[in-house]
From TrEMBL:
The enzyme's E.C. designation: 1.17.99.6
Function: Catalyzes the conversion of epoxyqueuosine (oQ) to queuosine (Q), which is a hypermodified base found in the wobble positions of tRNA(Asp), tRNA(Asn), tRNA(His) and tRNA(Tyr).
Subunit structure: Monomer.
Predominant location: cytoplasm
Pathway membership, UniProt: tRNA modification; tRNA-queuosine biosynthesis
Compartment(s) where it occurs, according to its Swiss-Prot or TrEMBL record: Cytoplasm
Lineage, uppermost ranks: Bacteria, Pseudomonadati, Pseudomonadota, Betaproteobacteria, Rhodocyclales
Name of the gene encoding the protein in the UniProt record: queG
UniProt KW keywords: 4Fe-4S, Cobalamin, Cobalt, Cytoplasm, Iron, Iron-sulfur, Metal-binding, Oxidoreductase, Queuosine biosynthesis, tRNA processing
Origin superkingdom: Bacteria
UniProt remark on cofactor binding: Binds 2 [4Fe-4S] clusters per monomer.
Protein's name in the database: Epoxyqueuosine reductase
Binding site for cob(II)alamin: 107, 186, 221, 268, 293-294
Length: 399
């Protein structure tokens, strides 16, 4: 998914610079071939070198069999992206996401993150589960309904993609023998959008998400770092042109410039990553979005071509595509834990779930059901929840 804003992810060189890095890569490749030749000689394997082009083609076939819509190969020189990422951090756009800075430049240096890495497999998998886009628009327009970002309606994508990527790694190992690899799914210091761009999967949109002409942006990204010198794919050209629909549609104006998101303003960050109180200035702008936001994607012309996922793992769970704010606000912590087990939503916990819902209820119509739901938690055990409920009740009282 890769974005510089929250869960669905953020997103120079010292010494001799990029030229030196490329020279070092060539040395690593020669060393890899020498070691592999020795291993094959000792183990009795055929000494003929791998047909890397043929292997890459087979890997792409296996990826499709596992449900991935596309697979590409990227190199490990992310120098330009590293500079942009450091500028983004320096501007403080990552907010409380300290993990963005914790790993330093390893995000942009695959061989430092995973020693021995020579190339990266980048893969995408569609998640859109609704056949009719009007259902999504109806959910956003109904102030009493809760809007959950469509990627989070089904099973936790981290688990789904991680399992599929490991199956792909096992398939490769079955073909060539043991090899060095590591799986990443929006859970470690990886510049996934830049890797996907270099792997030819698409281009970086002005909203910072990966875009493709064939499938828009409604898909997940995953990576497999490998110690195989696979031939890289060619990047594709960009096709955003003069369009600024994503920038214009952002409810909180979080896209502060093309290709630059201030996460501190983004609803995905405010409802998922932020641990404390949501700044009052943003609360009315959040509307009924209780977990994430899709506005910048919903207005993108390229998402007319988004593919509907037929994977049962991404099918809607717990009726989250049609639930009301009041009904979800009534969940006890035990109900939240039981129902959200296996969902990406689980990690924000019951307290922040209620915080988000209180904001949604504060923006909802002043119906008896909405007011009764808020009154029921006026004296909630959580100070964070009580503060947001008080804000919501005051908002209704002032109408």
């Amino acid at each position: 998914m890769g974005e510089d804003r929250g869960e669905r992810g953020a997103k120079g060189f010292g010494g001799g610079g990029v030229g030196q890095i490329k020279a070092q890569e060539r040395v690593v490749v020669r060393v890899w071939w020498h070691i592999r030749h020795i291993i094959r000689s000792v183990t009795g394997h055929a000494e003929n070198s791998l047909d890397l082009l043929a292997l890459k083609a087979r890997v792409k076939d296996w990826a499709r069999e596992l449900g991935f819509a596309a697979c590409g190969v990227a190199g490990i020189d992310l120098g330009a992206a590293e500079s942009h990422f450091l500028d983004w951090l320096a501007a403080g756009f990552h907010g409380e996401m300290d993990y963005m800075a914790r790993h330093g430049v390893k995000r942009a240096r695959p061989a430092e993150l995973v020693p021995g890495t020579l190339s990266v497999l980048s893969l995408r998998m569609p998640y859109w589960a609704e056949q009719d886009r009007a259902q999504t628009e109806a959910a956003l327009a109904d102030g009493e309904r809760a809007y959950v970002s469509r990627y989070a309606l089904g099973r936790d994508y981290h688990k789904v993609l991680r399992g599929r990527l490991q199956q792909l790694a096992d398939r490769i190992a079955g073909e060539i023998g043991a090899f060095g690899h590591r799986v990443f799914v929006d859970s470690a210091p990886v510049l996934e959008v830049e890797l996907a761009r270099q792997a030819g999967l698409g281009w970086r949109g002005k909203h910072t998400l990966m875009l493709t002409r064939e499938a828009g942006s409604l898909f997940f990204l995953g990576e497999l770092y490998v110690d195989l010198p696979l031939p890289p794919d060619e990047p594709v050209t960009e096709h955003c042109g003069d369009c600024t629909r994503c920038i214009d549609a952002c409810p909180t104006q979080a896209i502060v410039a093309p290709y630059k998101v201030d996460a501190r303003r983004c609803i995905s960050y405010l409802t998922i990553e932020l641990k404390g109180a949501i700044p009052e200035a943003f609360r009315p702008l959040i509307g009924n979005r209780i977990y994430g936001c899709d506005d910048c994607q919903l207005v993108c012309p390229w998402n007319r071509f988004a593919r509907v996922s037929e994977d049962p793992d991404f099918a809607v769970r717990n009726g989250l595509d049609a639930a009301t704010l009041a009904a979800l606000f009534a969940w006890t912590e035990e109900e939240f834990v039981t129902r959200m087990a296996g969902s990406a939503i689980y990690r924000i916990g019951h307290e922040r779930w209620l915080r988000n819902l209180a904001v949604g209820l504060g923006n909802a119509p002043s119906t008896p059901a909405v007011l009764a739901a808020l009154e029921a938690r006026r004296e909630d055990a959580s100070a964070l929840v009580r503060e947001h409920v008080a804000w919501a009740l005051a908002r209704h009282a002032g109408r």
